[in-house]
Amino acid sequence: EDEQIVAEIMGRRFFPHLITHKTWEGFHFAGHEIRITEATDCYGAVVWPSALVLCYFLETNSKQCNLVDKNVIEIGAGTGLVSIVASLLGAFVTATDLPELLGNLQHNLLRNTKKKCKHQPCVKELSWGIDLEKNFPRSSCHFDYIMAADVVYHHPFLDELLLTFDHLCKNDTVILWAMKFRLEKENKFVDRFQTLFDLEMISNFPSLNIALYKAMRKGRMKA
Questions:
Q1: For 123, which DSSP code?
Q2: pLDDT tens track of the chain, all 223 residues?
Q3: pLDDT of 118-163, one tens digit each?
Q4: Which InterPro entries match (predicted)?
Q5: 3-class state of residue 160 by DSSP
Q6: How many CB atoms lie within 10 A of CB 39?
Q7: What's the gap between Cα 210 and its chain centre?
Q8: Strand positions, DSSP E, 181-220
Q9: How far does Cα 43 stand from its chain's mean position?
Q10: pTM (predicted TM-score)
Q11: Comparing C-alpha atoms, which of 107, 115, 142 is closest to residue 37?
């Protein structure tokens, strides 16, 4: 079963038949052909398999996880694929990442959502752990969903990442988080994450070494 679903997920990716001066990679999600421009010189500007896993879940569980008119933030949005799919499924999306990635992120969102979505997604800078209250005030920012794909890897900002999850998450916020396990650091981060949040694995793909989690604040997990 794992291999069949993984084949279906990876089958959503396609490549252009002709090589042009501007390279792109294609995906089929939410009834649309999505064209993503990547930058191979930057980790944040590449589509990783965890993003495909999360997009597949959003599309195939659109009734149980109804995003229409929901307020969604994606952290570490990178190329924007998850944000694009969430937008196509009816959400109002804020796609965030580091300042150097926002130009390409904005390009991909506009290219794939303009005149196709109920709510046009927006792009906003978010450096984990920095100026969180200034840029995302707790009193006025309320997100129904926080989405993240492959934000935990070998980097020195895991404390800041956990702080960002904590700041953005209200009692009724649902976190959807796809994660590829590579190093022991990832396992330790999951343990630390669970000190603040109830965590439920909703999908697991051993052949990809990727797990998809749902989380809410401690004691507030809903069926």
A1: E
A2: 799 999 999 999 998 876 666 678 999 999 999 999 987 656 667 899 999 999 999 999 999 999 999 999 999 999 999 999 999 999 999 999 999 999 999 999 999 999 999 999 999 999 999 999 999 999 999 999 999 999 987 667 899 999 999 999 999 999 999 999 876 667 788 999 999 999 999 999 999 999 999 999 997 644 4
A3: 999 999 999 999 999 999 999 999 999 999 999 987 667 899 999 9
A4: Methyltransf_16, SAM-dependent_MTases_sf
A5: helix
A6: 16
A7: 14
A8: 197-205, 210-217
A9: 15
A10: 0.93
A11: 107
- Token pair in block for residue 76: 């570490």
Question: What's the CA gap between 36 and 45, in Å, rounded?
Answer: 10
Tokens 């070998």 — which residue? 154
Q: How far apart are CA 142 and CA 169, in angstroms?
A: 8
The domain 1-217 having CATH identifier 3.30.1300.10: the answer here is no
Positive or negative CA dihedral for 148, 153, 155, 160?
Answer: positive
Which two structure tokens, joined as six digits, stand for 88? 């196509």
Q: Residue 213 corresponds to which tokens in the numbers above? A: 């989690």
